[in-house]
UniProtKB/TrEMBL annotation:
This is PDZ domain-containing protein. GO terms for cellular component: outer membrane-bounded periplasmic space. PANTHER family: CURLI PRODUCTION ASSEMBLY/TRANSPORT COMPONENT CSGG (PTHR41164), CURLI PRODUCTION ASSEMBLY_TRANSPORT COMPONENT CSGG (PTHR41164:SF1). InterPro entries: Curli_assmbl/transp-comp_CsgG, PDZ, PDZ_sf, TPR-like_helical_dom_sf, TPR_2, TPR_rpt. SUPFAM superfamilies: PDZ domain-like, TPR-like.
């Protein structure tokens, strides 16, 4: 029996859906997704997610609109039921959903049993209605109302991971991080391997200042969803945290994969094509990318710009000038499997700027302000060394804005200002734009390196 319970959105649809359920029950089932759906004005909408089921583990939430199954558009709940029934048992299903205006692709495996979920994990009708109402409040940005509705949903039935997850996320949006932490912990007690909850729990830990705990949750989410979007977001968060720690002097490799595996990469030439950039700027950017890739913890970075120097040192170790015990073993050079190339295509230290001065009436004072916007861009390529194939290519922009304000005294009878030292800026905007661009470039390389390259320690 297909274990997807369809709920009619209106009375006129109930007889049709009831007939469809009878028809599906008479057939041998391939599995269950562990969720309830209904035809609504928005499309095929998830109305309930069964705790511990495939849908819950994949991150499906009440209110999600199902757009496609296995790249085939889903236009009705009945069609979805037929498609799930026709899928081979234990096959991984690709489910495309829409949530709060954006789309996401989730992967899940249908259960092979036709036995309904245990009573304690199935929401009552009242509980499901409160959860749907809470989701609507959340999507509308009414977070306090959503919290109240989720609490009523918990009071109307057994504890469910999806309700605690929604409660935690709305506490987070209200900046009530301690309460969000408690709600997510309860959700993980009920469903410990839900990548979506692990991801949001990590984000909550960062708000509480618990960086190591956040990294632990993100690493687990990445391991549970190595190919999906949740895992991709988790890896991006890990890379960004590592990079920020490096900027603050955290040193060394901060993040990396939970399994410790790395890919071997080398950084190739940086071509300089922007009119306002120089070769020295390209060399400096290459060195920054080299360091950032190493410190991300995802890569073994090998040197390729000074191979002559490395070869000379190895030759020297075998010469009569070196001590006998200093001879370096041969055939030990690591070979890069991926090359990262870049071209500096935009470099504008002062893309936009403005200055203005306001003299205060009847006072010997003037206020001046400077606005400066800088931006740059790198065209990145990730190339497989063995085949020469381009694995990924992307334009990576970097942008920074700086403001400077000054308070001056005005000499009577003139318009000359004498600064008295009031400023509200720290760094040049071009430096910030460069750092922004390099950080984005590292995350791009991490997320676009195929999984099978991560196999070295």
């Amino acid at each position: 029996m297909v274990n997807i319970f369809l709920r009619a959105a209106a009375c006129r649809d109930r007889l049709l859906l009831f007939a469809m359920l009878l028809w599906c029950t008479a057939l041998h089932a391939a599995g269950s997704l562990g969720m309830s759906v209904a035809d609504t004005a928005d499309g095929v909408t998830v109305t309930a997610v069964h705790a511990q089921g495939p849908a819950a583990r994949a991150g499906v939430q009440v209110g999600d609109v199902i757009l496609a199954l296995q790249a085939q558009a889903v236009t009705s709940a009945a069609q979805l039921a037929v498609a799930v029934r026709a899928s081979p048992a234990q096959d991984e299903l690709e489910l495309k959903i829409s949530r709060a205006g954006w789309t996401r692709t989730l992967r899940l495996v249908a259960a092979t049993t036709s036995t309904p979920a245990a009573p304690e994990t199935v929401a009552s009708a009242e509980q499901g209605e409160w959860e749907q109402r809470a989701d609507r409040h959340a999507y509308a940005g009414q977070f306090a109302d959503a919290v109240a509705a989720y609490q009523k949903a918990l009071a109307a039935g057994p504890p469910r991971a999806s309700i605690y997850h929604g409660l935690g996320w709305n506490y987070y949006n209200l900046a009530r991080y301690e309460e969000a932490d408690q709600a997510f912990r309860r959700a993980l007690e009920l469903d410990p391997d839900n990548p979506n909850t692990l991801l949001t729990m990590g984000t909550t830990q960062m708000q509480l200042g618990r960086t190591e705990a956040a990294q632990g949750y993100w690493q687990k989410a990445s391991a549970l969803d190595p190919q999906g979007e949740i895992g991709n977001i988790a890896r991006t968060n890990l890379a960004k945290t590592a990079y920020n720690a490096q900027l603050k002097g955290g040193g060394g490799s901060v993040a990396g994969r939970s399994d410790g595996l790395k890919a071997i990469v080398a950084v190739g030439d940086f071509q300089v094509k922007a009119a306002k950039a120089t070769t020295e700027i390209g060399d400096g950017l290459r060195e920054m990318l080299h360091t950032a890739l190493h410190n991300s913890g995802y890569f073994i970075v090998v040197e390729r710009m000074d191979l002559k120097g490395l070869a000379a040192e190895q030759t020297l170790s075998h010469s009569r000038m070196a001590r006998p015990e200093s001879a370096l073993p041969e055939s030990r050079m690591d070979i890069a499997e991926i090359m990262v190339y870049a071209a500096v295509t935009e470099f504008e230290p002062q893309a936009k700027s403005a200055n203005w001065v306001n003299v205060m009436p009847r006072m010997p004072l003037a206020v001046s302000q400077n606005y400066n916007e800088s931006h740059m861009a790198l065209d990145m390529r990730v190339v497989d060394v063995a085949s020469g194939r381009v694995l990924a290519t992307q334009r990576i922009p970097g942008l920074a804005i700086a403001m400077k304000a000054s308070l001056s005294t005005v000499i009577p009878g003139t318009r000359l200002g004498i600064p008295v030292g009031l400023s509200v800026y720290r760094n040049t905007p071009m430096e910030l734009a460069i750092r922004d661009c390099i950080q984005k470039a590292v995350m791009y390389v991490i997320n676009n390196t195929p999984e099978d390259y991560y196999r070295h320690r």
